[in-house]
Every structure is written in C-alpha cells, then in structure tokens.
Design a protein that fits this description.
The chain has 437 residues and is an alpha+beta fold. It contains 13 helices and 16 strands.
Length: 437
C-alpha cells in the first residue's frame, strides 16, 4: 500500500478517481444490506468509505464486521459524491486491520451519552479521540507557542532548572520528599531559587515552562498536585511596574496568538477568548479590602484573600469591564522570604497576583537582591539560612535588582476556555486521589 493519508485536507487534495489509502480509526459502521458506509476518522475529521456488496462480497463482510475504534488502513478509489461528507468518498479495494478494538468501548467517542469524569480519565486515550477534548490541547499548544513567541520578542531565553531540589522555594509541608542516595531531596515546587540565581550570571531575562509539584491535599476544580508552571525572571528592573508591563504584554500577546492561529479548535469548543486592553488595571491590596468589605466579605488587613474573596473581586472588576487585572502590594506576613518589602511601609511588599475571571493565574513581584536583607527575611520566616547557602551564594558576588512571576499554564487554559475543571486542561491529571494513568 501507498503511505496512508492522515488528514482530511490531504484527502480533499487527492486527485479524483485516484487511489488513496486512509489510515485511521473506525468511527462508525452502517450496514444497509447491499451497501455499507464506514466512517474513518483521520487527524482532523472523518472520511466516508462506501462499500457495495456486489462489488466484492468478501471485502464487504470484512468491513461490516469492523468494531468501532479499530485502527485500519483502507485502500480505494476517490469518487465524487455530493451527498457524502466533503463531497467525495472512497470505494474500497483493500483492507488492513492494524489493531482491532475490544468491545464494548469504555466510553463513546461520538455518542451523546455522558459518562463520569473519572471514567473519562481512566480511559484518557479514548477520551482524547473526541474532537472537543482534543481541541483543548490544540489550543493549549498554541497558548504555549504564543507565550514563547512573545518572550522571544522581548529578549527572553528559555532555560531548564532542576526538578530535584535540596530545599523548597517556599518551605513548609507542601513538598514531596524523596530519598536521594541517602539524602533528603524534594520534587520542585517552583524554579524560583534557581531562576533568581541566574540573574547573577548575565542571563538577565529567562523563562521556563516545566512541571512543578505541590503536596497539598486540595480537592477543588482549580488545584492538582502536578502542574505546569510558566516562570520568568528579569534583571535590571527599576521596580515592580517593569515586571507588570512585561507580564501583561506576554499574556495579552499569547491570547491574540491563540485567536489568530486557533480558529478551528476554538470553533470546535465554541469559545472566543477576549484579548484584554492594556494596561491592565492595578488594584492595590488596601483597595481590594474596601471592595470586599462593601460586599460583606470581612478580611482583616494582613490576611490573605481567599478563593471566595477572589471571586468577589473578579465580579466587581468584571462589572467595570475588566476580566483580567493585577492585585498588588500584599502584606509582608503572607509572602515568601524572597519578596521585597516596601521601604516606606515594610509591612507591605512589592508583589502582585494576576487575576483572570475570578481566579489567580500568576503570582510575582520584585525580589530582594540584598543578601543581608535576605538572611533576615529567612530568619523571620523561621527558615535556617544555612539550608539555603547554595542560593545565597549567588548574591555574594553582585546581584542586580530583579523580579518575575510564576503562572499556572493549566489554570490559564482552563479559564481561557471556560472549562469546569482544571483537570480538563491536563492530559493526564494527577491529584491526591489519582496517580495513574
């Protein structure tokens, strides 16, 4: 057989009356007695195969006994037919069954009957054959391509930092501990410490898109234990505003990239993401508390804003036409040791969250680049500076002012596409109840 066609576009460009080979999955078989129609699903759609019993009864019997989702190659002639999908079909001459599918299927690919989400995840390879499920990851791929495109335009380079670490970026109980040849090691919860260290090297604009891990037993639609983090760091900043300007440009540019390149998968999903106007609003922490208090949500100054508070702020800002905004200048007490405190009001920091449709997408700010201040901050947080010596050593020999962010790719995809659960945006999601597949 000739190499199989893998897309409808290839099929549409095949010469009429020419011989082609379709390679794909059997989506449906309809036996009408003297004629049978087999729908073969390629990468981007289905092609109809029309088999006549009188033309080749043996081949007809083979085709009509195919089980749905079997992988086949069917060779035949391209025939124009106005009633067929795409205006043409294939008259089969030869069949090769590469991999027959078991019956019954654990879930339907084109059936309208719904199944439990756990069933879908247990059988993710079948679930991903659904056009709408697959479209999510086509859009996600475009989102990451858009991020890389914008970052390259702004002079950033992509780096890869260790995922086994000797210390956590934030400490605490949210670390997965493992044995490293008799020593304690942890799965990386963030590349924070490493990307800051790189600011002392002359690589002054870096980013990483990579897995991160948090041992938090959260059973919500917006948390998982293994996620994809988009982190960036930039040196020689004058202040936090420099970081905000870059992040908003990168996010808005990537959404525009998705809209430009992703009309097909967005159409399958029925979604039309908005590209926000820049600059994004900056909502200071004290102003946020005033909005929450006006809405009956009591948050004491110095406390973090919980999920309910984020939703309230999201609705309040949406009423003003802003589904994306920055929440800035959080209290020092609730921020990690590496965040810079304000000189005038040291109880507040140069920090921010990027909020999108009522959820936190990113967290970042200006970092503390002075080694003495870093040591003091570690001690105030109850951390031993000796355990962070590998990190602090980078600050001994000249560290420029710098700042950056960490953003959850899974959550950004979820909110951009209005998905009900973050797990919909992850190929094989892992949480405290699910480790396989």
């Amino acid at each position: 057989m000739a190499p199989p066609l893998r897309s409808v576009q290839e099929f549409l460009h095949a010469p009429a009356a020419g011989t082609v080979v379709l390679g794909g999955w059997v989506e449906d078989v309809r036996n009408l007695g003297s004629i049978a129609f087999i729908l073969v699903r390629l990468r981007d759609g289905t092609v109809q195969v029309a088999a006549k019993k009188k033309a080749d009864e043996s081949l007809f019997q083979e085709l009509t006994k195919l089980t749905r989702e079997s992988v086949v190659e069917i060779a035949g002639k391209v025939v124009e037919n106005k009633e067929a999908r795409h205006g043409r079909e294939v008259q089969p001459a030869q069949l090769s069954i590469l991999s027959p599918a078991d019956t019954p299927l654990p879930l339907g690919v084109v059936d309208k009957v719904g199944v439990e989400f756990d069933t879908r995840l247990d059988n993710r390879t079948v679930d991903l054959r659904k056009p709408a499920t697959r479209a999510i990851f086509e859009v996600r791929s475009l989102l990451e391509a858009g991020l890389r495109h914008e970052l390259a335009r702004l002079g950033f380079i992509e780096v890869h930092t260790p995922k086994l670490a000797g210390a956590g970026a934030e400490g605490g109980a949210s670390l997965f501990q493992t044995d490293y040849f008799g020593r304690k090691a942890f799965l990386s919860q963030s590349p924070q410490l490493y990307k800051q260290m790189l600011m002392a090297t002359g690589l002054d604009r870096v980013y990483e898109i990579a897995p991160a891990f948090r041992a938090e037993p959260s059973d919500t639609v917006r948390h998982v234990t293994e996620f994809t983090s988009f982190d960036a760091e930039m040196a020689w900043i004058e202040g936090q505003e420099d970081v905000l300007k870059v992040l908003e440009a990168v996010v808005a540019g990537s959404l525009a990239y998705v809209k430009e390149k992703g009309s097909a998968p967005l159409g399958v999903l029925g979604v039309d993401p908005r590209v926000p106007a820049l600059p994004l609003p900056r909502l200071r922490y004290p102003e946020a508390l005033e909005i929450l208090q006006a809405q009956g949500k009591r948050v004491r100054d110095g406390q973090d804003i919980d999920t309910e508070g984020e939703k309230i702020l999201g609705r309040a800002m949406a009423d003003k036409g802003h589904e994306m905004f920055f929440l800035t200048e959080y209290p020092t007490a609730i921020k990690p040791f590496y965040v810079m405190a304000q000189a005038e009001e040291p109880e507040y920091t140069w920090s921010f969250d990027l909020e999108y449709k009522g959820d936190e997408m990113a967290s970042g700010g200006q970092r503390e680049h002075r080694i003495d201040a870093l040591r003091d901050s570690l001690k105030r947080k109850g951390l031993d500076p000796a355990g962070f010596e590998f990190y602090l050593s980078a600050f001994r020999y000249g560290m420029p002012p710098h700042g950056g962010w960490g953003l959850g790719i899974d959550r950004l995809t979820q909110k951009m596409l209005d998905l009900p659960n973050i797990r919909e945006a992850i190929l094989f999601p892992h949480d405290r109840n699910r480790l396989v597949p």
